[in-house]
Specification:
single chain, 386 residues, alpha/beta, 15 strands
């Protein structure tokens, strides 16, 4: 780290660490990697439940946590009330932990207000600018929420030029930021512990999709596509797995009722990390049919030697999957079917793509992530010290 400086204290801010989402994993992985680089790390958040996620994410976490004691409409007007709800824990982090640098991870830029006001170096590690959430989200956003998000953009415009460094998590996020602000941006992709997913044991005749039980994922059409595959090759199985939330139960039950018990179609819910890892180890082909602006699952699948067949959606699949080498990018379910047939019927091509998938996944390793983030922290601190 920066020469002549005491052990660097890094404060990380993330709004909600109470559910095992991608943003939760990213914040906790950043904390662990900065600790591995020799930093002291503390985290400020509004809600958290991280100890319960250690088995789910396959990591151990030991951070000082500053959590909001009281929240105002935290589960409803989350964007509008973010500044209020973040202020107490963030001030606690600043006053007690005394960070040399503060990193907001997610998109709620107002959480950096206390650090900016106190002249502490800041990094905005953006997964998606909050004010653009309604424009690009695959789920419906109601009118009050849209108005709330537009109002929030005023805070973003005020803070963006007072923050030392802006990092985008992926190409999709970079495009959104460039549409809004004239600001120098770099991309640092979220990391994956590649060695965890390396192949152990033999592959099975398994097609895997890690998804959500939500209609936006068109899982009914995905199942129909698998039935077309099954008519020609009855040895294959389809495994769908997701965290099952309360709001997704109706769609899950509808899918479950549509499946004949004799079909080789399996719906998994709330799998542990080890159970998911076993599916990655068995799977030969990975399917994904919805939008995601990045997507750990594409990296995890490729690290497991699984060629990915995914929809083009100007998001993570196009950034992570090398079309024609580590998998295929497709336009619709008919093409998904055709490319899958090619992989099933051409074993030498599958083996070649499986090897390329493993090699491609190394771009997203923990080591690459840590080195790039440490370089940015050093750059920001040197600029402040000069």
């Amino acid at each position: 780290m920066v020469k002549g400086r005491e052990k660097i204290r890094v404060g990380i801010i993330s709004y909600d660490l109470s559910e095992p989402r991608g943003g939760t994993k990213l914040a906790l992985s950043l904390g662990n990697q900065l600790k591995a680089a020799g930093c002291e790390v503390a985290i400020s958040c509004v809600k958290e439940n991280i100890k319960d996620f250690e088995d789910f994410f396959g990591e151990k976490y030991d951070f000082k946590i500053y959590r909001a004691k009281r929240t105002f409409l935290s589960n409803r007007l989350v964007h509008y009330t973010a500044l209020w709800n973040h202020r107490e824990p963030t001030l606690g982090l600043i006053e007690e932990f005394k960070p040399h640098i503060v990193i907001e991870i997610g998109g709620i830029i107002t959480s950096l207000m206390p650090a900016v006001q106190k002249g502490i170096p800041t990094i905005y590690y953006c997964t998606m600018p909050v004010s653009r959430y309604a424009d690009v989200n695959i789920y419906k956003v109601n009118l009050p929420s849209k108005l709330q998000l537009k109002f929030f953009s005023l805070f973003e415009n005020y803070l963006i030029n007072r923050i030392d460094r802006v990092i985008a998590m992926c190409q999709f996020t970079e495009r959104l930021i460039k549409q809004m602000w004239d600001k120098k941006i770099i991309i640092i992709n979220p990391p994956t512990k590649i060695s965890t997913f390396k192949q152990r044991g033999k592959k099975g005749r398994v097609i895997l999709s890690v998804c959500r039980y939500d209609a936006a994922y068109q899982l009914d059409k995905l199942i129909e596509t698998f039935r077309r595959i099954s008519k020609e090759n009855k040895l294959y199985e389809l495994h769908l797995t997701a965290e099952l939330s309360e709001k997704d139960k109706e769609y899950y039950e509808k899918l479950k009722a549509s499946i004949n018990p004799k079909e080789r179609i399996y719906l998994h819910k709330n799998l542990s990390f080890d159970e998911l890892l076993r599916l990655y180890n068995k799977a030969e082909i990975f399917w994904y049919t919805s939008f995601t602006h990045f997507g750990y699952i594409f990296v995890e699948a490729q690290a497991s030697g699984i060629p990915v067949v995914a929809f083009k959606r100007m998001g993570g699949a196009e950034e992570i999957v090398v079309n024609g080498k580590s998998g295929f990018l497709v336009d619709d379910f008919d093409e998904l079917y055709e490319k899958t047939k090619i992989l099933i019927n051409n074993r030498s091509l599958w083996q070649k793509m499986s090897k390329a998938a493993r090699e491609n996944s190394e771009r997203f390793s923990m080591e690459v992530f840590r080195e790039r983030f440490v370089d940015v922290i050093e750059e920001v601190l040197k600029r402040h010290a000069s």
